[in-house]
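Data availability (excerpt). The following record was deposited with the supplementary files.
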Amino acid sequence: MSRYALVSVFKALAFWAIFQCLLISGVFSFLEFVPRWATGMLVGLLTSALMMAATWVFLKYDELTLQDLGLVPKKHSANRFIVSLLTGMVLFGLIYSAFYALTPINVYANENVNIFNTLVLILLLFIVLSLMEEILFRGYFMKKIESVIGIRASIYITSITFGLYHGISVDSITGPAIWGLWYGLLTYWSKGLAIPIGFHAGVNVTQGLFGEKDKWIDGIWSFELSESITLFTVGQIATAIQFALLVFGLTLIEYYLRIVRPRH
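Predicted structure:
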């Protein structure tokens, strides 16, 4: 491995180590006495700011720029963010619809929930958290890996890392890691982070609305298993959807690398 490659790997690992130190150092322990949603929002904002500062420091001694990392807003960034946010919400809504239609899952409204306030909090919370995660995974970290092993492998490695960041388990690889493939692809295809941040936030917002992100906030609706017998189980539908997302994502990555990127 060349000296340049070794230095690039070291920088990528050092950038990741800074984030890990933030998580395990207890620097956010003062947030334990505020509501869950406020904790998530403050962690997202503070971590984003600190990782942007780390990015700026790294770039002072690097060949990359903020524009190369997609961290400079462009003319249509706001519009792209909004459209991708809605797309992510609709896509995950369709996934939930498949569960509702094909499995013994029912949806019920949670009592004593202020719908407007909860919707606003969920939107703000997961926009902030998605911003934090995209800056970390699809910013400097992914670009430095790309400089050593190329785009394809950088998407795969950051996706696996993204999955394991959500927990050391098989579910992390079959869930978040597959979504990580899509976020990485969108980063390269759109040449920026506005679309992956929006899409990522949209996916998480829909999950939050249905109570799947109760670490941070209670949803407006929740799922419960009924006693009815259906043709498919929840596990079967989940596996089918994960497989479809994986195959479609890998296909789009190859299409981008072989067809789209060579044209530009």
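Summary of structural features: The chain has a mean pLDDT of 93.
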